[in-house]
Amino acid sequence: MRPLKTAFILAGVLAILAGGVLAYKYSGIHWPSPVMEYYINQWISSTWVWPLKAGALTWTNAGSNFAFVYKGRIAKWVSWTEDSIDNINVIVRGALDPVQYPNVLALNHVWYYTGSKEIIDSDIIFNSNYAWTVQGAAWGYDVQNIATHELGHSLQLDDLYWDYQSEKTMYGYAAKGETKKRTLTWDDRAGIKFIYGVK
Amino acid sequence: MRQSGKRVLASLLVAAAAAGVSFGTMRKLELKELTAQATHVVMGTVLSVVSGWTPERSIETKVRVAVDRYLMGAPGLGAVELAIPGGEVGGLGLAVSDMPKFVEGTRVLLFLAMADTRPARVVGLHQGKFTLKQGRVVENGLAENEFLPLVQAEIRAKQEAK
After folding, report:
1. Nearest to B103 by CA among B14, B21, B9, B13
2. How far from A93 is each of A19, A160, B15, B40, B118, CA to CA, in Å?
3. pLDDT for the residue A3
4. CA A31 to chain centre
5. Is A79 helix (H, G, I), strand (E, B) or coil?
6. Residue A88 vs residue A83, higher pLDDT
7. Which residues in chain B have Cβ-Cβ distances shorter than 8 Å to A1?
8. Could A174 and B6 be called an inter-chain contact, meaning their C-beta atoms sit closer than 8 Å?
9. If you measure CA to CA, which chain B residue comes closest to A80?
10. Å from B139 to nearest chain A CA?
11. Chain-centroid distance, C-alpha B43
12. Looking at residue B22, what is its pLDDT?
């Protein structure tokens, strides 16, 4: 295991040093243990459950020690206040204020301890002001595509914005009909393995 | 060696994160859309970045920018104040997707939407903030003297369309 991990880290360093290419971005914040239990809000359509779980499973199967664990449906909503610091991580669908959050398809807000950099709570909201599809249809934004990306933020991988990074799951922009974020690139997997270790 | 390599990678990644990171998923806005949605396009220097609790018990960061050049919009304000969700207070931090990150003393070009109510907001969240450093634009790698004409062309196009 250790030689493999070392090779992995060195490959990442070389990838970065060669031409200034950034393979992934890590915020420096992390879960205290390599597990995140999550719930799906009970008002989300049942057709969304499988795509959301598939997004989580993609990261669980990425070869790191980290695992998402689905705990079921829940009535909890998300708020922006400290009331939401409850260790109950939930995915909801709701309308984001179009003035405050224009052009935002989904977002993830994370509470953490500044000293230890350990995460306390991570909630995801899908913006119901946009059209969503579970089949990658051209008229909407694909649920699994965006879920995989947002759950990457729950791991604390950050957005990438350069055009050359557009094939990666953690690329921060998405288009209607897009499904490429459903599957991880080598760099996305490198990110989760760096933070939480290689299985 | 193993630890050394890990530290190098960690340093690079943390440095990248500190350079200005946000997270979430957005619809990408081109310069034309940023300009269309903005009431003001300004250049200036970040004076202060202060996080605090809101009355609703969330965390927000107030950013004050000294404006020295108006590319679009009525001039007159010496400084603009922005309120950005998220930040760190005491022992707690709140990281919110897609928010622009500011560092005191840096020069920025901002696409702003200013209504009667203050503070102003950055159009397209992080997409409407460009950091100017040593003659280059950090977010897109362009030279400042390449980027400014592009912005000015979009502003002219918007004004001519009116």
Report:
1. B21
2. 40, 24, 33, 32, 29
3. 52
4. 13
5. coil
6. A88
7. none
8. no
9. B58
10. 8
11. 11
12. 33
DSSP for residue A20: T
Cα–Cα dist A162/B25, whole Å: 14
Distances (CA, A) of B123 to A74, A75, A107, B36, B111: 34, 33, 17, 10, 6
How many angstroms separate the CA atoms of A118 and B35, rounded?
A: 39
Using one digit for the tens of pLDDT, what is the confidence trace for B36-91?
Answer: 999 999 999 999 999 999 999 999 999 999 999 999 988 777 899 998 999 999 99
HSE (CB half, 13 Å, CA atoms) of A99?
A: 7
- Residues ≥6 apart with Cβ < 8 Å to B89: B51, B52, B53, B59
Q: Which residues of B fall within a CB distance of 8 Å from A27?
A: 17, 21, 23, 95
Can you tell me the distance from the alpha carbon of A112 to that of A122, in angstroms, rounded to the nearest whole number?
9
Residue A54: both structure tokens together: 């598939």
In chain B, the residue whose alpha carbon lies closest to the alpha carbon of A20 is: B12
The answer to whether the Cβ–Cβ distance between B95 and A13 falls below 8 Å is: no
* Predicted confidence band of residue B16 (pLDDT cuts 50, 70, 90): very low
One-letter amino acid for residue B21 of the chain: V
Segment (H or E) for A3:
helix A2-17
Residue B111 pLDDT class (50, 70, 90 cuts)? very high
Beta bridge partners, B67, equal B44
Q: How confident is the model at residue A16 (pLDDT cuts 50, 70, 90)?
A: very low
Q: Is the link from the previous residue into B119 a cis peptide, with omega within 30 of 0?
A: yes
Token pair belonging to A193: 């393995």
Phi/psi of residue B142, each to 5°? -75, 155
Interface contact flag, B26 A161, Cβ < 8 Å:
no
**CA-wise closest residue to B46 among B60, B75, B66, B20:** B66
- Give the ipTM: 0.85
pTM for the predicted model, two decimal places: 0.83
**Chain segment B56-70, per-residue pLDDT in tens:** 999 999 999 999 999
